[in-house]
Specification:
336 residues, mainly alpha, two-stranded antiparallel sheet
Length: 336
């Protein structure tokens, strides 16, 4: 069996498990965890946006919360002010975040290393304080509440987010589509340009790659992922708040991506899942659970520098190599 087949089988098992969540968890008396898994899916998309920049292009961004917030407000304002339906509101949130990423990226991607990280924090802070002060539009820290429109309506049949099962499957479908799109991008020629720029931007420029344009495209795509995450979170919580535009939200996304495995597709999902589940289990018995989260982060970075997904890939490759080596040794006759 090859590594590709093992990964495909593991992915199939993961998908089956995620699809079974709304039925399996209530049967086990853990209905509350259905919403936790939905939240993990949403936040993993934000972590994936940070991972697209850091893991595949080599740009460490602490400004993804800005696009997350634009996704939230794109949904909330389009529903409250213009009466948009679910899909137009979702598209508005993603487009608003993408447009904001384009505006900020034009200036931000000219910089690299810590300069890039700093300017993304600055942009996030500027718009965070602007959103907090413009209460007439954003509601500030209190935010904007809204009633989500139906997802689908045909004749007398309506699918509404008021049904927890429908809400979960809508989130799962959209998040899965975003991860699949990310996988297609990073495996395309554009993805090869991303990796070339990450490894050595000067050499990439020498072979004809437009480094600035490549980074800008990645920045906008990452903004779209963050916007989709914010839009889904707005539907999930039925509100949008400026507090989610603060840079510490971006910091959490970076930590989730690193723990899960930067430069991998599903690493952000694993990292987000681990830390959110840990938070839910420990926060009820220990108010300083963030200290334990910090300890976990340090341990993962020390002993699994490629993250959970990287450690899994290495384990699978090692086991398959060992399994292929044993028949070879058995086929070699022993010397008398």
């Amino acid at each position: 069996m090859t590594v590709a087949r093992v990964r495909a089988a593991a992915l199939a098992i993961l998908l089956v498990a995620l699809v079974a969540v709304p039925w399996a968890l209530p049967a086990l008396g853990a209905t509350f965890w259905v919403n936790i898994v939905a939240e993990i899916l949403i936040w993993s998309l934000l972590a994936a946006s940070a991972n697209l920049l850091f893991g595949f292009v080599g740009l460490l961004s602490f400004g993804q919360a800005l696009f997350f917030g634009f996704g939230m407000y794109g949904v909330a304002l389009s529903i409250e002010a213009w009466g948009f339906g679910f899909w137009p509101a979702l598209a508005t949130g993603v487009l608003a975040a993408s447009a904001m990423a384009l505006v900020t990226g034009v200036m931000a991607v000219r910089l690299t290393w810590h300069y890039f990280a700093i300017i993304t924090v600055v942009f996030s802070l500027i718009f965070y304080f602007a959103a907090m002060s413009m209460k007439w539009l954003t509601g500030g820290d209190d935010g904007i509440s809204f009633s989500p429109p139906s997802v689908f309506a045909l004749g007398g049949h309506t699918l509404s987010l008021g049904d927890a099962t429908v809400q979960y499957y809508v989130i799962l479908a959209i998040v899965s589509a975003c991860f699949a799109a990310t996988a297609l991008v990073v495996s395309s020629p554009l993805g090869l340009r991303f990796k070339a720029v990450r490894e050595n931007d000067r050499r990439a420029a020498l072979v004809g790659i437009n480094v600035y344009a490549t980074r800008l495209i990645a920045f906008v795509l990452a903004g779209a992922l963050a916007g989709a995450s914010g839009a889904l979170f707005a539907f999930f919580g039925r509100y949008a708040s400026a507090s989610y535009m603060f840079y510490h939200v971006s910091g959490e996304a970076v930590v989730w991506a690193i723990i899960g495995g930067s430069g991998t597709i599903l690493g952000p999902l694993f990292g987000t899942g681990l830390l959110i589940v840990f938070r839910e289990l420990v926060s009820t018995v220990w108010e300083h659970y963030l200290l334990a989260v910090g300890a976990i982060t340090i341990l993962v970075v020390m002993f699994a520098p490629r993250g959970l997904a990287g450690a899994w890939n290495g384990l699978v490759a090692g086991l398959l190599d060992r399994g292929a080596e044993e028949p070879r040794r058995a086929a070699i006759p022993e010397e008398s």
